[in-house]
Every structure is written in structure tokens, then in C-alpha cells.
Design brief:
With 348 residues, the chain is an alpha/beta fold. The chain contains twelve helices and twelve strands. The strands form two sheets. The protein has a six-stranded parallel β-sheet with strand order 2-1-3-4-5-11, sandwiched between helices. Strands 7-6-8-9-10-12 form a six-stranded mixed β-sheet, sandwiched between helices. Helix 9 links the parallel strand 6 and strand 7. The longest helix is centred in the last third of the chain and has 20 residues. The protein starts with a helix and ends in a 9-residue tail after the last strand.
Length: 348
């Protein structure tokens, strides 16, 4: 590894002078341009790179942001992480990514390790497990700029970025209603999941506005699970149960895309083609949705934009800390968008 001393020897100047020039210290303005040029040329020739760790110790800046994900295998994560990474890259910050594996003990340990490495900010991609009050307390104690994605907390402790689930639920049912569907089955989200209640509220608001009666016998709930893929199996099983009960429905509105995929399999196994015999709509627009057969109509969460927005909030918080000024927590709701593909069809 090339050191300051090596550059000093090559350029013919003292280590102190070389250090001042290469670190662009305040005293560098007193050093003649010709001297600076010789030192910079020598550094380039030797391939000198500054020791970022030593530099961060001097400046008390690490230019790193911790990124905590509760389960990397969740297909929801991919685009959110892309938005996080791209925005940090453009701001010259290095992300330190950790996968908590849905374990509270791992969350606590990783948070401790990130703080030990002097991260300047933190972005957390949450799920239902994040409702654990002790996990929240651990984060609040960190007192560094933090933004949560997919989990909204009331108050001034931490910022959040979520999708407007109520608008999304409304758009999903309105689409099916516009196609002439009146007998609609619903697979709702787990009752403890923060997204479930506002999404269902949007559905009920749309039903009320369209004078559509929701049949409670066609409404089922996903069970809680730490496995992000479990909604596929649950969607298949719950759809099988609806079919066994001989309840008639021409469309099914699933809580998310994975649930919709499971529902489509169950319908296919029962000899009901999608969308000819039953239209199906999901929520999220995860990567396989466009590639599935049939391609899935869904409500798209702006996942990449949500990741970028969370980073923007954290960077603003870091700037406030450096400038020694207070900054209030921000709570942003991003608008979803209906994406119509092949899994829904008109009855009219």
C-alpha cells in the first residue's frame, strides 16, 4: 500500500507538506501551485489512495449509511434496494447492507455493529415484525437520522415512507367494478400488518361509492408468517377453501402479488381459467408479475422511488446534524398506480 512517505520520497517534499496537499487541508492555500502539481503527479504515478478510515477518524465523518432489511428473499425488497443504492451512490455515500432474517436478536446485534462503525444515517426496510416495541426503542436510542420504509410511525422520533394503501385498495376494486364484476372474493392481509387496515378501508370506501355490497362469506384473511413466500401457499389454500364452499365469484382481489399467484394456481387446478372464468388482481407489482402467465394486473407500489425518498430524508437529516440544527421527522405517502395486464377481463 502506497503511503504519504512514499509520495514524499518520490516528490522530494516533506511528509507534512505532502499530507497537507493530498488532504486539501486549510494550510494548502499557502503552498505554491508548482509544488502541489509535483506532489499530485507523484501520487498519481505511485497509485496513491488516501486512507479513508484515517480520514474519517480525523473528520468524524464516515460517509456510510446503514441499510437494514428484515428478509432479503422478499421479492418486495429488490426495487426498494435499487432506489436506496442509486441515491446513496449519487450522493457519494457507501451503504452497509444487513439482512436481519426476521430475528430480533440479529436486528439488535447488527444495529450495534452499524453504530460501532459510525454510520451517519440509517434506512430500515420494515415488515410486520417491526411492530415489536422493543425493536423501535432500540432504534430511537441510536439518535441518528433514520427513515423507515413500509412502516408508518406517528410522532417525531423517526421518519417514514409508505405507499398510500387506501388509494391502492380503492383503485383495485374500482378496476374490477368497472369491468362489470359484482361477486368479488377478497384475500385480506394479516390483521397485525400495518398495510392491511388502510388497504381494506380503501376497498370499503370504493364499495360504498359504487353501491357495491361486499359478501362477508367471500372475505378471508392471510395468516401471519415470517416467510415472505408464505402468502403464495396461503393464497392457494384460501382460494381452494373458497372454491370448496361453492361460493360463486367472478373476480378475486388478493392482498399482494404472491397471494395472487397462489390464487391463480388454485383456480387453474380447479379448472377455472384466469381471466376467462375469474379475474385476479394483486398489489405491489413485484418483478415476476409481468412475466407470470397470465401477466398479472396489479397495483404498483413505486418501490424504487420509495427507497430514493427514504435516503433523501436521511441525507437531509445528516446535513442538519452537521449544521447543528433541529429537523422534524417526515412522513411521506407515495401514490400507487394501477397496472392493467392479462389477469383481469371484462364481463360486459
Amino acid at each position: 500500500m502506497v503511503t504519504i512517505r512514499d509520495v514524499a520520497k518520490e516528490s522530494g517534499f516533506s511528509s507534512t507538506t505532502v499530507s497537507i496537499v493530498l488532504n486539501d487541508a486549510p494550510l494548502a492555500r499557502y503552498i505554491p501551485p508548482v509544488t502541489k502539481k509535483r506532489i499530485e503527479r507523484a501520487a498519481e504515478k505511485l497509485g496513491y489512495r488516501p486512507n479513508q478510515f484515517a480520514r474519517s477518524l480525523r473528520s468524524k465523518r464516515s460517509h456510510t449509511v446503514g441499510v437494514m432489511v428484515f428478509d432479503m428473499t422478499d421479492p418486495y425488497c429488490t426495487l426498494v434496494l435499487r432506489g436506496i443504492e442509486n441515491t446513496l451512490y449519487q450522493a457519494s455515500y457507501l451503504p452497509i447492507l444487513t439482512d436481519v432474517h426476521n430475528e430480533r436478536s440479529r436486528f439488535e446485534r447488527y444495529l450495534e455493529m452499524l453504530l460501532d462503525r459510525r454510520i451517519e444515517g440509517l434506512v430500515v426496510l420494515a415488515n410486520w415484525l417491526f411492530l415489536d416495541i422493543n425493536v423501535l426503542a432500540d432504534l430511537e436510542k441510536s439518535s441518528i437520522p433514520t427513515a423507515l420504509i413500509a412502516c408508518e410511525l406517528k410522532g417525531d422520533a423517526m421518519s417514514s415512507v409508505i405507499v398510500d394503501n387506501e388509494i391502492g385498495g380503492y383503485a383495485a376494486l374500482e378496476h374490477l367494478h368497472s369491468l362489470g364484476h359484482r361477486k368479488i372474493a377478497f384475500i385480506r392481509g394479516p390483521k397485525t400488518l400495518a398495510d392491511s387496515s388502510p388497504r381494506w378501508r380503501g376497498i370499503r370506501n370504493c364499495a360504498k361509492a359504487r353501491d357495491l355490497e361486499l359478501d362477508p362469506r367471500l372475505v378471508v384473511d392471510l395468516p401471519e408468517s415470517r416467510d415472505p413466500h408464505s402468502s403464495f401457499e396461503a393464497g392457494e389454500k384460501l382460494t381452494q377453501e373458497l372454491l370448496k364452499e361453492k361460493r360463486q365469484f367472478t373476480a378475486l382481489l388478493a392482498f399482494d402479488d404472491m397471494t395472487a399467484f397462489g390464487a391463480i394456481r388454485a383456480l387453474g387446478n380447479a379448472g377455472r381459467r384466469v381471466p376467462e372464468h375469474c379475474s385476479v388482481i394483486g398489489f405491489d407489482d413485484v418483478a415476476p408479475s409481468a412475466l407470470y402467465t397470465p401477466a398479472l394486473t396489479t397495483v404498483r407500489q413505486p418501490m424504487e422511488a420509495m427507497g430514493a425518498a427514504a435516503v433523501g430524508i436521511v441525507l437531509e437529516g445528516i446535513k442538519s446534524v452537521l449544521e447543528k440544527r433541529e429537523v422534524a421527522a417526515q412522513h411521506r405517502k407515495m401514490e400507487p398506480k394501477l397496472v392493467v395486464r392479462d389477469s383481469t377481463q371484462s364481463l360486459l
